[in-house]
Amino acid sequence: xxxxxxxxxxxxxPSSRVRVLNLLPYLKGLEFKVAPYPQNIWERFKLFKSLRxxxxxxxxxxxxxxxxxxxxxxxxxxLIFDFxxxxxxxxxxxxxxxxxxxxxxxxxxxxxxIAGNRILAEEAKKYNKNVAILPSAVRVSDIPIKNYEFxxxxxxxxxxxxxxxxxxxxxVEPVLKKLSEEFPIELRIISSxxxxxxxxxxxxxxxxxxxxxxxxxxxxxxxxxxxxxxxxKGKCGYKALQYMACCIPPVISDVGxxxxxxxxxIDGFVAKDEGDFYLYxxxxxxxxxxxxxxxxNARKRAxxxxxxxxxxxxxxxxxxx
Length: 321
Description:
This protein is of the alpha/beta class. It has 2 domains: 2-136 and 307-320, Rossmann fold; 155-305, 3-Layer(aba) Sandwich (Rossmann fold), CATH 3.40.50.2000. It is built from 12 helices and 12 strands. The chain has helices spanning 14-21, 41-50, 66-75, 97-109, 118-124, 173-180, 212-216, 238-245, 258-261, 274-285, 288-305, 308-320, and strands spanning 2-8, 30-36, 56-60, 79-83, 112-115, 131-133, 155-160, 185-191, 202-206, 221-224, 250-253, 269-271. The radius of gyration is 21 Å and the shape is elongated. The chain starts with a strand and ends with a helix.
């Protein structure tokens, strides 16, 4: 039986959970161990010394220093690097010499790179020809989905995400304010904190892993506005996938691979600008049948292409190759 050690950032990190922890129960035929990448340098060296006992070392998203990458490579029989964000640039989209150098170092020394989407794969292929694309997996089994027989007092436009990404909502603040004058709407935010939006009825729901799908299933529409920069172009559309899994039609920015995840006009809408967000949100808000039809299409697409069951099978094939 092939043995593998998964080196993750932290069990509570979204990427660690989505790209590794959620998939483990489905990786049949593997003997595996999960270890957070140590913060202490001496603990790292101790960990490196143990890696020779595993057939595969799977490093998830962590970019070690160039020296540590050299040691990691020396101590690994086979090294796989997995990433799902544009980690080679800063979060504001600006280039970073340090990030780029670390990314190049781990990319060149890996036996296989697993990228979350086409754009990330293209960047990795600059340094390594052995690159596979594996989308992030969303939970679709045994989760609450939208009950279209139930009517909310207000039409709920929902957003879920980390507090760091809350400013993205400001991109559609004028749109939501205008829609608030035309419809009884509510912006429902699921996060660790909220944000003020003038002229908009905002409800804050504290994020919880146990209740996130239940809360999403109460939305009427899910939104994912994004600025267009080097960092956001690398995003894997997980927010949209969460909406889709719960049978909620998404309206998302046309950034990166979003238009490859959401089929425009079928599963939801892909907005190129502020005007598009207004047009598509208005269409959905005034047409319940359209919301239902797109929501059902979105749910089916998530099940068939992005579910934990589907993605874990593809990951297992890569690990056993």
